[in-house]
Design goal:
It holds the Pfam family Sigma70_r4_2. With 66 residues, this protein is mainly α. 68% of the residues lie in helices and 0% in strands. It starts with a helix and ends in a 10-residue tail after the last helix.
């Protein structure tokens, strides 16, 4: 969770809403006044950034579902 909190707001918000609170992309889009496509793009980029941070911390790709 610390890694997510340390991310830029653009990605942190959508990742927290999707991965932690399990909101749908549609609900996130409404909440943040974004299109569903913009939410999907931010999730994709945020997950890639999170994966890189995890790898820097010494965790491999397997087992994270990212």
């Amino acid at each position: 969770m610390e890694l997510i909190r340390s991310m830029p707001d653009t990605y942190r918000e959508v990742l927290e809403l999707r991965c932690v609170l399990e909101w749908s992309n549609k609900d996130i889009a409404r909440r943040l006044s974004l299109s569903e496509n913009a939410v999907a793009v931010r999730l994709m980029r945020g997950k890639a950034l999170l994966q890189n941070k995890l790898e820097q911390e010494g965790y491999g790709r397997e087992g994270f579902g990212i």
